[in-house]
């Protein structure tokens, strides 16, 4: 019967729905593939993921990232944790300026205090002989007023008595009259040791201040202490490395709302807007959502501006965004302003991502991305580095990612974020419904005879 045949066809249709995920082990399954430069002669190395790859990833956890060898085999990889911003260190040589005075003049001795029942303090005795006419070096003065970076250590080239503990004290002052203690160390030198004294500092601000180094011992020093040089170790936070991509095709909805879609799954950490025109300032709110079924979520806010000067044009900084995965972005301009005169230039920023990879097989190597539904195949970092005990991932030979800024077009469906899988499932459901309706219609026209 025709109805029975259609029923069988319907059953076959429902049970034979094709698999929606391509084979993630095949290089040809990935939408983006590019040659990958590597460090020669290093089988295990650290690879920075280029921004051209970050804007092709379709899984937020980089599950669809692969590196293939010439034989088309996926290489073993480990996803490295995000690194904090590195610090830049430098050494600043300082000239020690001797502080002269009578022996013991930097300390106050011989004063006795008594506190009576009324809480009043009275000096009741002062002992000690008048100061001697002789002078000696009581310490050294270091001028650090011009040092803008934080200080993380002070190294002294000093002659100190061998085999005798000497206490070095470091104080800080802005006016040479009021001193605040900073740190103190006890140095001990054997006859064979170099004459170096190191005072560790915890990122101390020394800009606009003097440092004073004094020394002493619980016993009489067997030889004078001489500070011949000083070197200050400073550090500053290096500019954080970021990857950028430019988004084109954003749509204005009126004059105060701008919307665009991200055709990738890599989380965005900041948004840089460059307004059209010469002089403009615009407070904005940035919102995001994953699809049209969700409400908008506030990601961040800031002030965007563009000021045209005689020598340069000043623009506002990037606006940080809250963590989260959002494929569609809406930018709302403050209603008290005239809004956008034209769509601004849009750049998104990502945190740098790195992988450790073991180069097996023959080159050339290919980096691939862009496969929805791919399964992550990262190994634990300890397993990948088992053959290199004691070696840290940060010390691996490193290939920097390309600094270029890719340009990608905005998703154009305006937030209707139905995936390919969802659309196919809807098509199957509608087709099955149509077949059932046809079966019912045929059954009604030609009922079976007894």
Protein traits:
elongated; single chain; 11% helix; five-stranded antiparallel sheet; 4 helices; Jelly Rolls; six-stranded antiparallel sheet; 450 residues; mainly beta
What does this structure look like?
Helix 1 (2-15) packs antiparallel against helix 4. This protein has four helices and 29 strands. The protein is mostly beta strands and 450 residues long. The protein folds into four domains: 1-27 and 418-445; 31-77 and 355-409, no CATH class; 89-111 and 133-237, Galactose-binding domain-like (Jelly Rolls, Sandwich); 243-350, Jelly Rolls (Sandwich), CATH 2.60.120.260. Strand 7 (111-115) and strand 8 form a beta hairpin.
Radius of gyration: 36 Å
Q: Ranges with pLDDT <50 over ≥5 residues?
A: 12-20, 414-419
Can you say what the CATH homologous superfamily of the largest domain is? Galactose-binding domain-like
- The tally of domains stands at 4
Number of helices: 4
What is the overall silhouette?
Answer: elongated
**Helical amount among residues, as a percent range?**
10-25%
| Average pLDDT score | 82
What is the makeup of the main sheet?
Answer: 6 strands, antiparallel
Might you state the CATH topology name of the largest domain? Answer: Jelly Rolls
Straight-line distance between termini? 14 Å
By DSSP, the count of extended strands is 29
Structural class: mainly beta
CATH architecture of the largest domain: Sandwich
Strand order of the largest sheet: 17-18-24-20-21-22
CATH class of the largest domain: Mainly Beta
Strand percentage lies at 35-45%
């Amino acid at each position: 019967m025709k109805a029975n045949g259609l029923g069988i066809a319907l059953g076959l249709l429902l049970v034979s729905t094709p698999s929606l995920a391509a084979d993630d082990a095949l290089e040809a399954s990935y939408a983006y593939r590019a040659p990958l430069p590597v460090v020669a002669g290093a089988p295990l190395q650290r690879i920075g993921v280029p921004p051209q790859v970050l804007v092709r990833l379709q899984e937020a956890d980089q599950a669809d990232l692969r590196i293939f060898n010439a034989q088309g085999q996926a290489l073993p990889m480990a996803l490295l944790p995000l690194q904090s911003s590195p610090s830049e260190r430098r050494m600043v040589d300082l000239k020690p300026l001797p502080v002269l005075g009578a022996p013991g003049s930097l300390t106050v001795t011989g004063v006795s205090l008594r506190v009576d029942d009324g809480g009043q303090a009275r000096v009741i005795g002062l002992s000690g002989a008048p100061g001697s006419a002789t002078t000696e070096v009581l310490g050294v003065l270091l001028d650090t007023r011009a040092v803008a970076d934080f200080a993380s250590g002070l190294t002294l080239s000093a002659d100190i008595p061998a085999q005798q503990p000497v206490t070095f004290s470091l104080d800080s002052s802005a006016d040479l009259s009021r001193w605040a203690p900073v740190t103190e160390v006890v140095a001990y030198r054997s006859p064979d040791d170099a004459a170096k004294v190191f005072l560790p500092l915890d990122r101390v601000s020394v800009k606009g201040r003097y440092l004073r180094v004094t020394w002493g011992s619980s016993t009489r020093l067997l030889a004078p202490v001489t500070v011949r040089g000083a070197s200050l170790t400073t550090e500053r936070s290096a500019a954080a490395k970021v990857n950028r991509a430019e988004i084109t095709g954003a749509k204005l909805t009126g004059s105060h709302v701008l919307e665009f879609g991200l055709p990738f799954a890599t989380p965005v950490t900041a948004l840089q807007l460059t307004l059209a025109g010469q002089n403009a300032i615009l407070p904005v709110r940035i919102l995001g959502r994953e699809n049209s079924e969700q409400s908008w979520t506030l990601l961040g806010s800031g002030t965007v501006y563009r000021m045209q000067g005689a020598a340069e044009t000043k623009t506002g900084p990037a606006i940080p965004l809250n963590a989260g995965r959002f494929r569609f972005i809406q930018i709302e301009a403050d209603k008290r302003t005239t809004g956008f005169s034209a769509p601004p230039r849009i750049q998104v920023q990502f945190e740098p991502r790195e992988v450790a990879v073991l180069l097996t097989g023959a080159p050339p190597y290919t980096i691939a991305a862009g496969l929805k539904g791919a399964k992550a195949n990262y190994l634990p970092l300890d397993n990948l580095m088992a053959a290199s005990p004691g070696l840290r991932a940060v010390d691996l030979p490193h290939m920097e990612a390309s600094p270029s800024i890719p340009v990608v077009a905005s998703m154009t469906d305006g937030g209707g974020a139905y995936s390919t899988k969802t659309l196919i499932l809807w098509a199957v459901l509608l087709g099955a419904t149509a077949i059932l309706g046809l079966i019912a219609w045929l059954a009604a026209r030609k009922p079976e005879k007894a």
